[in-house]
Amino acid sequence: MKKRQLGTSDLHVSELGFGCMSLGTDETKARRIMDEVLELGINYLDTADLYNQGLNEQFVGKALKGRRQDIILATKVGNRFEQGKEGWWWDPSKAYIKEAVKDSLRRLQTDYIDLYQLHGGTIDDPIDETIEAFEELKQEGVIRYYGISSIRPNVIKEYLKRSNIVSIMMQYSILDRRPEEWFPLIQEHGVSVVVRGPVARGLLSRRPLPEGEGYLNYRYDELKSLRESLPTDRPLHELALQYCLAHDVVATVAAGASSIDQVKANVQAVEATPLTAEERQHIQKLAKAAVYEQHRE
């Protein structure tokens, strides 16, 4: 599978990554999916400490035994929780980040994390303190690089200006083109985008459109019309994944999969012929070019 450089780092990630949140809580099933993911050449795995209160990280750690060196391992921090209790709260403090990373390393059964990401963030956070935590973890060799997972323009702009992030994870798809407004600025800073949500909760896949369901600023009838108007010479999910990869600021599309068949279908879609400029322009004429209305300044 083709690889792309993640920002200015020396990490080269597969164009298709794997969003580990989709693994669920059945360890046997999760292990089978993970084995298939790795067998098919996907080298970017994206998890978070919050997913099932660390259980997801544990599954990933077990699956990586004996092949850690072949994997670009990414996890996230900032959503603080107490084991066995419902809910979580936001904590981007330096003290918490430096403590939480120890728990992630233990669950992942590794002594370093390739990409450590802030799992959210607001403009009111102690951003310099948060950055300091990541920089110290880099110096200590605990993490190789860091990034953020955010769709807030004001947060993104501050980290681009003040930190050494190499990536920004953003929800992006044909149905959510809001990130495109910020791609030039992100690219100007030598930072890559890691895509989540490329098939928009399955609305850009083979499954039937749920009756009456909308998505962001799309009504049901608009979704139905768009799906019917998109080119039919490619599977819908192939169009969706290839559309995300058509912009070179995107390093990897971290798609989830809850079955081996879905993993195989995603690999096939990413290894298909890239969209032509004409195909991409046609999709853009059909899909709304929305922008983020909130958290801009």
Short description:
The protein has ten helices and twelve strands.
Structure commentary:
This protein is an alpha/beta fold. It contains ten helices and twelve strands. Strands 3-4-5-8-9-10-11-12 form an eight-stranded parallel barrel, surrounded by four helices. Strands 1-2 form a two-stranded antiparallel sheet. It has a two-stranded antiparallel sheet with strand order 6-7. Helix 2 crosses helix 3 and helix 8 packs across helix 9 (260-270). The mean pLDDT is 95. InterPro entries: AKR, AKR2_Oxidoreductase, NAD(P)_OxRdtase_dom_sf, NADP_OxRdtase_dom. Pfam families: Aldo_ket_red.
The low-pLDDT segments are none
Sequence of secondary-structure elements: EEEHEHEEEHEHEHEHEHHEHH
Query: Averaged pLDDT, please?
Result: 95
* CATH topology annotation: TIM Barrel
Give the helix proportion (percent range).
Answer: 25-40%
| Derived structural class | alpha/beta
Protein name: Oxidoreductase
Organism: Halalkalibacterium halodurans (Bacillus halodurans)
Domain NADP-dependent oxidoreductase: 15-287
GO molecular function: oxidoreductase activity
